[in-house]
Amino acid sequence: MAGTQKTAVAVVLAALALTATACDNNDSGGKNAAPAAPAGAAAATSAAAPAAPPAKVSPAVFLEQVTKKTGAAKSAKVAEEITIGSVSMKAGGALAWGDGLQGDMTMDMSGTPGAEKMAGSIGGTAFVYRFVQDGMYMKLGGDALKASDGRHWVHVGYDDMAKLQGGAGGAGSADQLKKADPVEAVRSVIASGSVTEVGQETVNGTPATHYTGTLKVSDLAAANANQLTPEQLDHVKKSMTAAGVTSETVDIWVDADQLVLKQAAQADTKAGAMKFAVTYSDYGTPVATTAPAKSDTIEIAELAQLGKNAAGS
After folding, report:
1. Cα separations (Å) of 23 from 20, 57, 226, 254?
2. Which of 9-13, 297-301, 304-308 is the least confident region?
3. Whole domain around residue 278: which residue ranges?
């Protein structure tokens, strides 16, 4: 029993670190190259006419307008698809970003190596998350539920999240989650200085204008001038370099209402090709996420200690 509980805690810790990185990739336009958290979605509520920049307005100027319109929408339904090398994940739910990241997401990790071990440790390969103002919760099952003395949720505050990813880069990831919204990738494209309009396409049945840009590691300072401290930025650059990433291609699809319908990123890493895509729909959808009851919650530090105790016994 001690061995299974130790394994279950290890799986929970790994999944939480993976999810924190996934969300960071989602919110920052891919500043980290590790495997990402944060699946077709319904078409966004928007006009049916194709989106196009006003006459004589450059793509970069138009995308600046998009950041304001999308940021003001405050919430949306979200669907993600992520692959890196042999790892693949999908996630879906609804998120709000008007006052920090809030919402519910379910992540399917059945395409992750070791998925069978996850199933026993966590009670399946579908990981359920709640994001609240002070961090996130993950639902426990299987051996992890036993290790937590029957408490169904593990809480990970932003300070804990920074520790899971390590150092200044982890602190930067936590900071990004606090200020999450879909336009971070748009800002990254603008910062690349090479944004171009690809043309008219369709996303989930809605006409959209496709934009693309290539963000180099050397562009990160401009892309994150107001987001990361110099120490955090230096850590991110070193992490990307260590992962073998020199540049990343970022794509954005925008509808006629200047709302982001989809964003995607891809880069080559030492672990293989990384591809990330997220679609947004139903902007303005109600999001009323609340934290689980404290009596049904265990802090991540306590769960880790219980895992160590189980190993010792």
Report:
1. 5, 32, 19, 21
2. 9-13
3. 2-312
